[in-house]
Automatic annotation (TrEMBL), chain A:
GO terms of molecular function: ATP binding; ATP hydrolysis activity; branched-chain amino acid transmembrane transporter activity
Keyword Transit peptide: no
Keywords from the named record: Amino-acid transport, ATP-binding, Nucleotide-binding, Transport
Domain of life assignment: Bacteria
Pfam families xrefs: ABC_tran (PF00005)
CDD domains reported in the protein's UniProt record: ABC_TM1139_LivF_branched
Entry-linked PROSITE patterns: ABC_TRANSPORTER_1, ABC_TRANSPORTER_2
Family recorded in the similarity comment: Belongs to the ABC transporter superfamily.
GO terms (BP aspect): L-amino acid transport
Limits of the ABC transporter domain: 9-240
Gene3D superfamilies, A to Z: P-loop containing nucleotide triphosphate hydrolases
Protein's name in the database: ABC transporter ATP-binding protein
TrEMBL record, chain B:
Protein family per UniProt: Belongs to the binding-protein-dependent transport system permease family. LivHM subfamily.
InterPro entries from the UniProt entry: ABC_transp_permease, BCAA_transport_permease
Name assigned to this protein: Branched-chain amino acid ABC transporter permease
Pfam families registered for this protein in UniProt: BPD_transp_2
GO CC annotation: plasma membrane
Gene Ontology MF terms in the entry: transmembrane transporter activity
TrEMBL record, chain C:
Signal sequence residues: none
Main subcellular location of this protein, as a coarse class: membrane
Molecular function, one GO term: branched-chain amino acid transmembrane transporter activity
Membrane topology: Multi-pass membrane protein
Organism: Pseudomonas veronii
The protein, known as: Branched-chain amino acid ABC transporter permease
Spans traversing the lipid bilayer: 29-47, 59-79, 85-104, 159-187, 208-227, 247-270, 282-310, 316-340, 375-394
Matching Pfam families: BPD_transp_2
Keyword Membrane attributed: yes
A GO-annotated cellular component: plasma membrane
Length: 240, 313, 425
């Protein structure tokens, strides 16, 4: 529990049901300004569900999600997005029937107060590959290129908090490094990030704080160092 | 030669008309996964509204007005009926549109009676455009074709060149992701539904004057439109265009072909025997012209269910 | 459970003595009811249990009808099949047809399946009038019931008992089927066909079999119709009949075995009774269907089950306020709707329109024993006020109903929504 009055994103006592199955049992999670927080845990712990609940893609059964004090629970996803939360899904979900450029345009939004502004040009500078492919159908991109695309697309919405779900999944090590660097750069420019990441080393490297989830609850919260120091915790909640 | 040309022209124009109705349907299906049974009813309502309004405001205004009104009807259907049953699944939505078709047809019968009404092409449009060999070719027919082409062009430009078009295309592909990027997808659904309905209404307002306007037109056209949409590929505009033209041409040509299996067998010398058999053997292509689209649809559904241009899955 | 068995026994008894109590015209209506009930039950095997929505089921009903008629003419009561056993031919016709059609149709699922069944039915409908030997062209074919087993089948009563026997037997068989392993598999088909495939079942073959069985019983219903009417023509393949069975089944409720039977019986009965009173019966049927789809997705049977569950929990007295309000509200609202539609129907009818003369007030129409002037405000205010009143009472009923449900465990309203089916409007 990090009760900073300056919390940017506050998730309090969040419950989610899939039908009768109680998946999230009161998740408490807070992200401050300009922080990168990693959400760790085994598959099935509820990390993706937490992100989807924040984004409104899955309805919370109880609890609250607030962005800079503004209540977002129960709103439709497009309102939550417009309030300043971006989402980069695990499945990437590029619009295969649109070109790279059209995908990027889909993500564009005007920045809200306190949000960092991004432009398409900046995206092309970050990833020249995307500029080369700007008129290609997004379905024809490689895995790594699609990940770049979806990251940039959500970034162009000028979010204050970016939710990133498993960005390095299925990518070659070289691309993983690029993604990690991109996350750091985004952070440097003032965007807070909630990161779900399976690769522990990456997560520990880029985050200022880590939270561990188990069975739909937060079971640990602290610095990356504190986590690595606690061998029991690592074994119980993170080892396969 | 004359038969060929006239059938070709008729087929293309009928196909274009079919496209106006099926374009909305395929877009709606691609976007919402709902095959809207009531779509053909929008066509019928367009015809009847234009017929009613024509007596008050003149033909052109009547057509425009009925298009807009049917669009509004579409919006109402989506917002207050479909959205309510969305959570129960696609089969449920299908059934609801089915029920709505029923109701609309009965309401039409209530207000206008069970038989066709005197909705005719207005005098100022009722002349021959040119001569095809020895017959006059009606200008109104050409008008219908031209309007359809204009509509197609407009939709194409809208979808490919405008930001709205990009949003619609994205929402068709992945509605949840589109919404997570800040787009009001529910509004987009409603608008697409409304525009699709308006197109059907426009087709009805135009075609009703030329062909017949009766309470059965929804069912008759509806089944053909389904065939078009399935053959073309659910969700694909290009597919809808191709399938519409294909079916338009087939229907047009088939009606004039008096061949049957017996005549075919006659070439092989078994003509008399076949004639004696009767039944399927002597069935003329022209008589079953109406069933050919179904046979085509069955074929497609079995060989390539996603349609000619549809995406897999 | 005990109560259900008692109710069924009472129902059966009532059906048995029916011809003794009711006049001949009603007996005919009862025969139609029974046939429709069987048809709906057969349809539900495919739709509700198997999860395959067929929009062309009238085809198999029709095939059964025609097959039986051919047998009637050919056998003339002699040979292997005396008249009472003729529906077996209908069964066979339906089964074979269902096997062929089902083999094609079940190759695809969901909306595509429905479209195939629709296309097949329409194909048959278009071809039938051209095939004179099979379907008698435009006029159709007819025959006569031949005497058998000492009965002459001349009057409605005997036909009624024959129909009743077959319908009860068929429905019992259909019910027994749901208890067999194959029947349970059918439910599994609906829930998760994919899973079944991974478990090693040949899902396509299963689907075809279910389709064929459903068509078989539809064929029996068709055969009974052929015996009853002694004729059939290609109109039987019309979309209207396929539509009707879909409407009846869903109004009754697809998730309860006897739901479609209930729906079909009610709709056919009211259809018969109302068709003398109103021209707009089909409109009412459509409205009822849409209302059920929107507010009572589990149909009338589901509604009954929901209420009886509450009765079991709280007792009869507890539900009386909600039940009373619901019935009152529904009644008043229905009255308002009927009033409005009947008024409109009369005003827009051809006869009335012919009476209209320019610059003169529109003449009065008679409804419910009174004269109403279309120009008068009262004529339109009455249904409007009744409608509003009805809606308000229904809102009250909903309040009372929700209070009855009160001590169900609730996490929050959002989680409650999808679970409560058959909720009162």
């Amino acid at each position: 529990m990090n009760p900073t009055s300056q919390n940017l994103l506050s998730i309090s006592d969040l419950h989610v049901h899939y039908g009768k199955s109680h998946v999230l049992h009161g998740v408490d999670l807070h992200i401050g300004h300009n922080e990168v927080v990693s959400l760790l845990g085994r598959n099935g712990a509820g990390r993706s569900t937490t992100m989807k609940a924040v984004m409104g893609l899955v309805p919370p059964s109880a609890g609250s999600v607030q962005l800079a004090g503004r209540e977002l629970t129960g709103l439709r996803p497009y309102r939550i997005s417009r309030a300043g939360i971006g989402f980069v899904p695990e499945e990437r979900e590029v619009f295969a029937n649109l070109s790279v450029e059209e995908n990027l345009r889909m993500g564009q939004q005007a920045p809200t107060d306190g949000a960092t502004a991004w432009t398409v040009e900046q995206m092309f500078e970050f990833f020249p590959r995307l500029r080369e492919r700007r008129n290609t159908g997004a379905g024809n991109l490689s895995g790594g290129e699609q990940q770049m695309l979806t990251l940039c697309r959500s970034l162009l919405g000028c979010p204050r908090v970016l939710l990133i779900d498993e960005p390095t999944e299925g990518l070659a090590p070289k691309i993983v490094a690029v993604v990690a660097e991109a996350i750091r750069e985004i952070h440097r420019r003032g965007v807070s990030i909630l990161l779900v990441e399976q690769k522990l080393t990456i997560a520990l490297k880029v985050s200022s704080r880590v939270c561990v989830m188990g069975h739909g609850r937060i079971v640990f919260e602290g610095t990356p160092q504190a986590l690595t120091d606690d061998a029991n915790l690592m074994k119980e909640w993170l080892a396969v | 030669m004359e038969f060929l040309t006239v059938s070709l022209l008729n087929g293309v124009i009928y196909g274009l008309l079919l496209f106006m109705v099926s374009a909305g349907l395929t877009l709606i299906f691609g976007m919402m996964g709902v095959l809207n049974f009531a779509h053909a009813s929008f066509y019928m309502v367009g015809a009847y509204l234009a017929y009613t309004l024509q007596k008050v405001v003149g033909f052109t205004t009547a057509v425009v007005l009925s298009t807009v009104l049917v669009g509004l009807l579409g919006v109402i259907v989506e917002r207050f009926f479909l959205r309510r049953v969305h959570k129960h699944g696609h089969a449920h939505e299908l059934l609801l549109t089915f029920g709505l078709t029923f109701i609309i047809a009965e309401l039409i019968k209530l207000f206008y009676g069970n038989f066709s009404v005197e909705y005719r092409v207005p005098e100022f449009l009722n002349f021959a455009a040119f001569q095809v060999f020895s017959t006059d070719y009606p200008f109104y027919r050409l008008l219908m074709g031209v309007v359809s082409l204009l509509v197609f062009g407009l939709i194409y430009l809208l979808l490919t060149r405008t930001r709205v078009g990009i949003v619609v295309r994205a929402a068709i592909h992945r509605p949840q992701m589109a919404e997570a990027l800040g787009h009001n997808v529910p509004l987009v659904f409603m608008a697409v539904f409304g525009i699709g309905a308006a197109l059907a209404g426009l087709a009805g307002a135009l075609a009703g004057a030329f062909y017949t306007t009766n309470p059965n037109m929804a069912l008759e056209l509806g089944v053909i439109v389904f065939v078009v949409v399935v053959v073309g590929g659910l969700g694909s505009m290009a597919g809808a265009m191709i399938a519409s033209l294909l079916i338009g041409l087939i229907s047009s040509f088939a009606v004039g072909v008096d061949l049957s299996l017996a005549s075919l067998l006659g070439l092989l010398g078994a003509g008399d025997w076949a004639q004696q058999m009767g039944g399927l053997m002597t069935l003329k292509v022209s008589s079953v012209a109406a069933t050919i689209p179904f046979a085509l649809m069955l074929l497609i559904l079995l060989i390539r269910p996603s349609g000619l241009m549809g995406e897999k899955g | 459970m005990k109560l259900t068995k008692i109710l069924l026994a009472v129902l059966l008894l009532a059906l048995l003595v029916l011809p003794a109590i009711l006049p001949a015209a009603m007996v005919n209506a009862a025969i139609q009811m029974l046939i429709a009930a069987l048809f709906a039950c057969a349809f539900n095997l495919l739709c509700g249990q198997g999860g395959m929505l067929s929009f062309g089921h009238a085809a198999y009903f029709g095939v059964g009808s025609f097959a039986t008629l051919h047998a009637m003419s050919a056998l003339n009561g002699q040979g292997l099949l005396p008249t009472p056993l003729l529906p077996l031919i209908g069964a066979m016709g339906g089964f074979i047809c269902g096997l062929c059609a089902g083999w094609f149709a079940t190759k695809r699922a969901g909306v595509y399946f429905s479209m195939i069944t629709l296309a097949l039915a329409e194909l048959l409908h278009s071809l039938a009038p051209h095939l004179n030997t099979l379907f008698g062209g435009e006029a159709g074919i007819s025959s006569m019931r031949a005497p058998a087993w000492g009965l002459d089948f001349g009057d409605a009563t005997q036909v009624y008992y024959l129909t009743l026997g077959w319908v009860v037997l068929s429905i019992a068989l259909l019910y027994a089927f749901t208890l067999t392993p194959m029947g349970r598999l059918t439910f599994a088909l609906r829930e998760n066909g994919h899973r079944l495939q991974f478990l090693g079942y040949n899902v396509h073959r299963l689907r075809v079999l279910v389709f064929a069985l459903s068509a078989m019983f539809a064929g029996i219903a068709g055969g009974l119709q052929a015996l009853n009417l002694e004729s059939a023509n290609y109109v039987l393949f019309d979309m209207r009949f396929s539509a009707e069975v879909v409407l009846n089944t869903y109004i009754g409720g697809v998730n309860v075995f006897l739901g479609p039977v209930l729906g079909a019986a009610l709709m056919t009965f009211f259809g018969n009774a109302a068709s003398d009173l109103t021209q707009s019966w089909l409109l009412y049927q459509g409205l009822l269907f849409v209302l059920v789809m929107m507010f009572m997705p589990s149909g009338l049977a589901g509604l009954v089950l929901c209420w009886s569950a509450q009765i079991r929990r709280r007792g009869w007295l507890a539900i009386i306020p909600a039940a009373f309000s619901a019935l009152l509200g529904a009644g008043v609202l229905s009255l308002a709707v009927v009033f409005l539609i009947e008024t409109l129907q009369r005003v827009f009818s051809q006869d009335y329109q012919a009476l209209l003369m320019t610059d003169q007030a529109w003449p009065a129409i008679s409804l419910f024993g009174r004269e109403w002037l279309p120009g008068a405000l009262l004529t339109w205010a009455t249904p409007l006020l009744l409608g509003v009143a009805g809606l308000l009472v229904l809102k009250l009923a909903r309040h009372q109903w929700l209070r009855l449900l009160d001590d169900e465990p609730v996490v929050n309203a959002a989680a409650l929504r999808p679970r409560v089916e058959g909720e009162q409007p």
